[in-house]
Amino acid sequence: MPELLGRHKPIVGMVHLAPLPGTPFDEALTNAQILDRARRDLDVLLEAGFDAVSISNESDRPYVTDIPRETIALFTFLVTRLTQDLPVPFGCGMLIDPRASLAVARAVGATFIRLSFGTMVGTFGPVVESPGEVLRYRRQIDAQDVKLFLNLSPHFATSLDTRPIAEIARTAYASSEPDAIQVHGAGAGGLPELDAVRQVKGAVPEVPVIVASGVTPATLPDVLAVGDGVIVGTTLKEDGKIWNPIDPARARAFMRRARELRGN
After folding, report:
1. What CATH number does residue 56 fall under?
2. Of the four listed, 4, 100, 201, 232, which is most buried by Cβ atoms within 10 Å?
3. Is pTM, for the whole model, over 0.90?
């Protein structure tokens, strides 16, 4: 398996922005205050030794599939400021609008985005993302260098594609050639069934498979034994609550365990 994000079994830490202006949980923060909160969490991840980071508008819940222009503009500004001279690879994502994510990633030089394809129904209503349309948009804006980390198990929703996950993985790779496949639990902080990760790896051995939610220091040995990388957010937060700031002690403990398991 080739290295992903420049190393073997990378650990990606999430930076969740505060609610952006005009979203339902807007806290009336200034741009500078939003930036300061995010920079504090980013610095904690870097000091703990995370291999890469991903910046998202996680707090803009409930999410929409067509993000307003002013939100995209502010997100682009914030990510640009946060990633100046960043020493590790980074991704960015605007939930749940893959075209907005691609456009921002192209503009700011992000390494990857996270996205879903297919038809889903759940907390955020019906969501339809056509891989043909998204990949054509990627080509139109010359974003071929932006890696696609494809979700096979959408958060807070049920896919209307009821085929076995291994078959979904095989056809997703055959049609779209994502750079990595993500498997995660039913929602943020939920660990997926590791047997599902094994099934995906068996179906598409040429593609890195990332365990993208619910990983803790206690579950990390089993996860890294099966998966090719980890994306982690909730367990790093104070008291394990997703909307809290990142706890430096939790972040250090997570990476210390990862280094032990990877032998570095």
Report:
1. 3.20.20.390
2. 232
3. yes
